[in-house]
Amino acid sequence: MNLILLRPDELAAIGAGSYRAVLADRRLAHLREVLRASVGDSVGVGVEGGELGRATIVALDEQTATLELRLGEPPPPALDVTLVLALPRPPTLRKVLQQATALGVKRFVLFRAERVEKSYFSSHGLHAHALAEDLRLGLEQARDTIVPTVEIHPEHFGRFVRERLPALSEGGTPLVAHPGATTPCPRAPIGPATLIVGPEGGFIPAEVAMLMQVAQAIDLGPRILRVETAVVALLARLAP
Amino acid sequence: MNLILLRPDELAAIGAGSYRAVLADRRLAHLREVLRASVGDSVGVGVEGGELGRATIVALDEQTATLELRLGEPPPPALDVTLVLALPRPPTLRKVLQQATALGVKRFVLFRAERVEKSYFSSHGLHAHALAEDLRLGLEQARDTIVPTVEIHPEHFGRFVRERLPALSEGGTPLVAHPGATTPCPRAPIGPATLIVGPEGGFIPAEVAMLMQVAQAIDLGPRILRVETAVVALLARLAP
């Protein structure tokens, strides 16, 4: 946690551009146990959807921490890549959401493919509070405040590609990560992009054929990577 | 596991270029439980330090699997980056070893820094069998056979930089990942490189000052990343 992330409703104005916030949850535990902070210490803060700033701890005990803060710094630029991901198993989803959020992704779209287990769509990891937790961990890591969106599309793959993907691809160059593609992943920002990443076992041939009609296939060379490794590697190449 | 990795001493020659191998460990469990393989199925194999090939399962029961195989394909090219890493906490070390091995790193050097907890050097994760397991998982993932080396340097940081780093840097352009460096990480292979990555909390200023004298500082932009994310992102940029 490189940033204490506050909700706008936690801020009470106490003067021109100054606010007070009182924490009693895991952010308190983080201040006490990880940062070993004391009254008078300064910590980095940010407001969800808003600016970054610095806070001074004005009171701290086992129940609460009281911060006085000033904002004014913009969050880092977003990475203009929509990540369209075959829903991975829950631990992989957590890693991808946290890491891709840290890298600046602001829109996640989760879809079904032949090699996605149906049970993944009823996993606790897809509950709103679990998703919010993973996104928040990514934001706190990268000192960002802009919470990404996560869309879940459990319909059949064919329907997803026909009915949803065209609108998603209007948002940016559609790329599909496919080991064995002859075009390497770009090594520089290409403007807005929609990056499609398949399941751990890969797309089946019929799925590849459908995707090739709507997206440019790219790869990272001859090495087969885990989904969480491939996503970070692809985003690192496309990042400014 | 995209490859059944065999040790050379497991191969028994049965004809010109053909070998037999009998498995009874987790590779057997993988064949039975993950691949749900049957007699007659073909699986990808490789020999540690050697070639890739295909095997046919000629016998399979609860105790053993017998494979007959032919080799002949070279493993994928190595990534010519020596990863010089401040020893991270054990779960992070595992992720880095597995992912960087999958990306093709062949030499890891683990060192001490001010923000490395001393206890990490006595972790079970540094035992030879634990390291070998992580490297093997990375090789099996990426269908590679060349086992990386891992060197552990528990001496003080200053001594490491003075006495060890010069020889390591002779092997390739020395780069140190340092958030806030004004030079971005290269976006293409730069030939052999020695990539130095600090601990989760960063190098302390005195350490940065020493490293700046012997290596080029590079960064990945304003976002602070976890060690495992940063390593994958850096390697993805430097990879061919």
Automatic annotation (TrEMBL), chains A, B:
It is an enzyme of class 2 (transferase). Its EC number is 2.1.1.193. It catalyses: uridine(1498) in 16S rRNA + S-adenosyl-L-methionine = N(3)-methyluridine(1498) in 16S rRNA + S-adenosyl-L-homocysteine + H(+). Its main location: cytoplasm. The keyword S-adenosyl-L-methionine applies. One of its GO terms (biological process) is methylation. SUPFAM superfamilies: alpha/beta knot (SSF75217). Residues 78-238 form the Ribosomal RNA small subunit methyltransferase E methyltransferase domain. Keywords: Cytoplasm, Methyltransferase, rRNA processing, S-adenosyl-L-methionine, Transferase. One of its GO terms (molecular function) is methyltransferase activity. InterPro entries: Alpha/beta_knot_MTases, RsmE, RsmE_MTase_dom, tRNA_m1G_MTases_N. It is found in: Cytoplasm. Belongs to the RNA methyltransferase RsmE family. NCBIfam families: PRK11713.5-4 (NF008700), RsmE family RNA methyltransferase (TIGR00046). Specifically methylates the N3 position of the uracil ring of uridine 1498 (m3U1498) in 16S rRNA. Acts on the fully assembled 30S ribosomal subunit. This is Ribosomal RNA small subunit methyltransferase E. It comes from Nannocystis radixulma.
